[in-house]
Amino acid sequence: MASLQAYALVGVSARPVLVEAHVRPGLPGMSLVGLPGAAVREASERIRSGAASSAMPLPTQRITVNLPPADLPKEGPGFDLPVALAILAASGYLAPEQLRGVGALGEVALDGGVRPVSGVLSCAEAASQAGVSFLLLPLPNLAEAREVAGAVPVGVRCLAEAVRAVRDEGYRLRLHQRGERWLGRRESQPVGLGPRPPDLSDIAGQHAAKRALEVAAAGAHHLLLSGPPGAGKTMLARRLPGLLPSLTRFEAIEVTRIWSVAGGGRSLSGLVRERPFRAPHHTVSRAALVGGGPTPRPGEVSLAHRGVLFLDELPEFSRDALESLRQPLEDGCVVITRRQSACVFPAATTLIAAMNPCPCGFLGHPRRSCTCTAGALAHYNDRLSGPLVDRIDLQVGVPPLEIDALEPAVREATTAEVRARVEGARDFRREREARTASSAPAGDHPTAVERRLCLSPPGRRLLHEAVAAGILGGRGYARTLGVARTLADLTGSWQVREVDVGEALALRVG
Length: 510
Ligand SMILES: [Zn+2]
Prior knowledge:
By secondary structure, the protein is of the alpha/beta class. Helices cover 42% and strands 16% of the residues. It contains 21 helices and 16 strands. The protein has helices at residues 38-41, 43-53, 80-90, 120-130, 142-145, 159-167, 169-186, 207-219, 233-238, 240-243, 249-262, 286-290, 300-303, 319-331, 374-384, 387-390, 415-436, 446-452, 457-468, 474-490, 498-509; strands spanning 2-10, 13-24, 29-33, 62-66, 102-104, 107-108, 114-115, 134-138, 152-156, 223-226, 277-278, 308-311, 333-338, 341-346, 350-355, 394-397. Helix 6 crosses helix 7 (169-186) and helix 8 runs parallel beside helix 17 (415-436). Bound molecules: zinc ion (ZN). The site of zinc ion (ZN) has 8 residues, from loops.
């Protein structure tokens, strides 16, 4: 019997799995046991052909591969390489003891080549925690694996290289050096998720919307932009990721794990270093938006983790899709339950939604008239009512562009300038929270929250007036206070002043 370590993905993390192979006399054939998924069951054909192409034909005997623990489902083609190595060792091409402390992942092609797989960063983390001495993986996945300290990643291009790497330490070292050279050539290409969006200063005017973007970035508040077609709502939304502070290394690893698992084998050239911006179309299904499927995959809200999720034409999304976003936006994660297991996908994202003020788009327009019927308007607004919109703290109008505003009369703030203010507010918040952590009262009671957030008496008076006037409900009260706190953080004010509450009310009511 021969065995080595492989990795099963559960959500965005990976768990070690043992691959054990036995070869014994009997009817020729291969059986895989221990909850293999469809792709793993198909491995036998790929491996048989791949091994034959690599001049290591498998014996015409009974081959049994066991994948403990038996209660953990094994999905994806990443099991090909470890299963192939275990069988080759059980067939005499390798000494079984040479596989001790070895981990492997990769898809084996019919010609014996080793192809990239998804979820490599998480597998490398699992390998490192499990203490393997080296991890064999497809060369194109090397950049991701190298971000994890611990198990030494060895990138291979084919099954023959993997077998030789197990046998021969000197060869393994040469493959390691080859990998470093290969990475060096790739590092000249920048790692990103797309072209860098243009600068905030390219947009003339729209100061209310720009202010709302700054507040959204500073306090991670969700934002709804409402305005006629062509007012520049999408242009504004595209600028939000640039206003957020750079990803920390910890955050970059979180984002990369998700992108890697979702990648379907597309190899990432290292860590994702830019904040994601995802803009799913309004026809997106619930599963594509929040994740799902028989083998749960992250959805758009998780691909937007630590970045921005942009929903253009919000009222056009299905009610089911919008409803499904409520829990992720509240909790910062998506929980998907399958049979006896549950997996969690991170989803800490800032939502930016955009909509026309009415179906025709021209309600309240200074020069054009709205042609919508009262019934159509009521139906349109009805689609927006509900718990999702309740969770959008900032709602601002984006008026149609006026010709005067296009004159470069005032110098517009650049993305870098606003980002510096956002970073300042976030630093101030951290310091404030650290200093009040021991003395502030805990709990969700309004009085406790008001004291914790340092609401000034005049600010409190104004906020309570808004509740008494019916402008704010219970949830609106708490969320407006949160926005006011962010506004105070932006000016470095210890107290939430009346002026902060006033602006927060204006930003919420739209
Ligand atoms: Zn209209």
